[in-house]
Write a structure and sequence with these properties.
This protein is an alpha+beta fold. About 30% of the residues lie in helices and about 30% in strands. Strand 8 and strand 9 form a beta hairpin.
Length: about 280
Amino acid sequence: MIYELDKSKFEIIYNILNKNSDNTEVKSIVEGINPGWIFVDSLDNPKVAFVWSAGQEGFYFVGNENIAKFNNSINNFIDNEIEERAINKGLKRFEFSGETEKWSPVFEKIFSKRKLRISKQYVYKLEKNDWKNYNKRSNSSSYKLHKIDKELLENKKIKNTMFLTNEILRWWSSLDDFFNKSHGFCMIDENTITNYSLGNFYIDNVMTIGIETLEEYKRQGLSQITSEAFIEECFKNNNKVQWECMGENIASYKLAEKLKFKRTNEYTLYSFPFSKLQS
């Protein structure tokens, strides 16, 4: 059997987390900082769990990868319990990864009848000493750098504030939650927000960064400028910074490396389409 945990019981899975893994996303959900769901093999003494991140729109499997009863039940559980909920959230695929690479052969066995898509996910971290030697990009454009705050999101003159608002609410339970626990910066071209760099997850003084630029404003170095402001704010508040992206997203990891981030980990990312969307 597989059970869904009530949010008040999320912390019960702390005992099964791998102490040597990057569990920023999972821990932030367990702590109730970021929204998500948690499913376990036992409500009282779980040995294995999978965690859904609302912002990441993906699932993380943690704990013992060899619990046969759980592994044998997961396909039916996804089809009967997860699929409809996920589709209602706008998802088209079941995207997932394991806490360690020990999960990889297990996934490929469990989901052998699925049309698996396999890719790599890169994790980067930035050391404060490396940042001290970084030369910031000068803003030669007419666009203005702006911290993301309530005043900005309530400014009726800005025509696409929902571009930012929707992204924040994808990761955070409310705007107030974001303002209290995170921060971000954007560039503004007259009355248009061109791009943003903002904090997605926050736990143990580690904040992960998320970036996006409107198509018509790409390749102008705008993400570099907003990311620099984001990083400086993190270090000013004594927070560490983490960057994560898909291995096929060359532009993202090249920017991370330009900003002096160093790759500290990579893991395998899997996905398959929901069965209802294949017919």
